[in-house]
Amino acid sequence: MQSRAVSLVAPPELLAAIEALERSTDTIFLDVQKRKVLFRADGLIVAVSDLVYDLFVTLRGVPPDERIASLVRRHGASEVSKAFQAFAEMCGVGLFAGPVSELPRKRPADVQPSGIVLMVAQTCNLACTYCYGGGGSYGSQVARMDPATARAAIDLMIDRAPARDKYTVIFFGGEPLLNFRLIRETVGYCEARAQELGKSFSHSMTTNGTVLTDAILDFLREKRFTLMVSLDGPQAVQDSLRPFVTGRGSFAVVIHNIRRLTEAGVPVQMRATLTRKTLSAEAIHEVVRIGRELGCNRVVMSPVDTTKSEGKVDEALQLGSEQLMELERIYEAITEENLEHARVGDTARAGYDPHVRMMRSLAQGKGRGLTQCGACFGMAATSSDGTLFPCHRFVGMDAYAIGDLASGFDLARIEEFFARAERAYTAKCNECWARQICCGLCYFRTADGDGGFAEPDDGACGSFRASLENAVGFLARLRELPEDEQRRYVESVRFV
């Protein structure tokens, strides 16, 4: 054994791979989900052996000759020799090539939004306990958009992106249906512009689900709206988190109206904000059960973010670093259950999977820039007075305004918006192996309120990396399953 070990010499390709990987922040080895995996920022996922993992992780930093000797002691000279041959082949196909190219930096001149968010009603009839929008007013006086402002926003979107064939108009608030007349007039204007230009428009709305007359229902169905309706859970949760301004609970009204919508054929996505009250697998499954029972075609869940909420927020609702990691452990268990259901053929209990979107993106080679925000480029928002903002969350934060409907987008302000974020993110993000996947997470969450940004939050960063690690490991495991089990898993988690 010893004489054979002496004869083993690392091939040049392997030495180059060791050197490249120890410098790289684009490639990492993960020990997750019962698999050891090499993961690269462009989405490449390769399951590796214990020997390979030892070589690049366990023995990281050890001189190559000493690594080889240690590998021989652990795995035997024959296995190490086979691994060297395999490495020569992998290096030949570029597996350990240079760093993955950086995502191109967005340029303000390229602003061509295909979507516009209209803050049609900066007022609300609910008093949600975690609201970031100042009760729907976004820090201003109660206001409703007028038809001229809405038309100007539609025209600006068309003028900035004349080559697009389809545009999206998103009605938002506060509660947008408190200004239904404006919504109806705006859709009519879009139809006229579509006929004039040979284009098409789609319409969506985020609503609290409490305002629904027969006339509104007929209109939403006729105009093929897609709705996002907020419902945080069963009655005790919903009524305590999302009461009417009078203090009365909203659960019964929202449940009734969602059912009316889905029975009428209006596509409804249900959005639940997760707080400490729903920080359990049982609570999450209950949210999904409610959505399915109501006929929703999708359930979206997001952790509560109270960083910009006005007034005193109940600390019992907030998710700190510890709770975010606990949420990821819950998510991990849910995906584990779904894979087991697919293995045994019992998919009746599946339906929601918190990792499937990320897994799907990685599998399709679209993982890079997965959470890259479309603010200013794919979309923009206009307040009721015609001020433009990067997205609906920034409305009312004048230090982040990027123009107005009278003069259009201020490209210099857009450039400064991203430059300030980049300056705040660079030091921390450049050291992170997940940076080209997450792209710094949400700009609103890190905004300091004065036009600048803070570096990304440790809790959010850690939670995202844990989620990405699990998605990578689960995808590696899924690919090893028989085709029928893979198909059962994919088909059983479409409700996301």
Structural class: alpha/beta
CATH architectural name of the largest domain:
Alpha-Beta Barrel
CATH homology group of the largest domain: Aldolase class I
- Structural domain tally: 2
The DSSP helix count reads 18
What's the gyration radius in Å? 26 Å
**Between the first and last Cα atoms, what is the distance in angstroms?**
55 Å
Spans where pLDDT lies below 50 across 5 or more residues:
1-6
Q: What is the fold named in CATH at topology level of the largest domain?
A: TIM Barrel
Count of beta strands: 14
Main beta sheet: strand number and arrangement? Answer: 11 strands, mixed
The overall pLDDT, averaged over residues, is 89
Q: How would you describe this protein?
A:
This protein has 496 residues and is an alpha/beta fold. It folds into two domains: 91 residues, no CATH class; 385 residues, Aldolase class I (TIM Barrel). 45% of the residues lie in helices and 14% in strands. The protein contains 18 helices and 14 strands. The strands form two sheets. Strands 4, 5, 6, 7, 8, 9, 10, 11, 12, 13 and 14 form an eleven-stranded mixed β-sheet that branches. β7, α8 and β8 form a beta-alpha-beta unit. α12 packs across α18. The radius of gyration is 26 Å and the shape is globular. The termini are far apart. The N terminus is likely disordered.
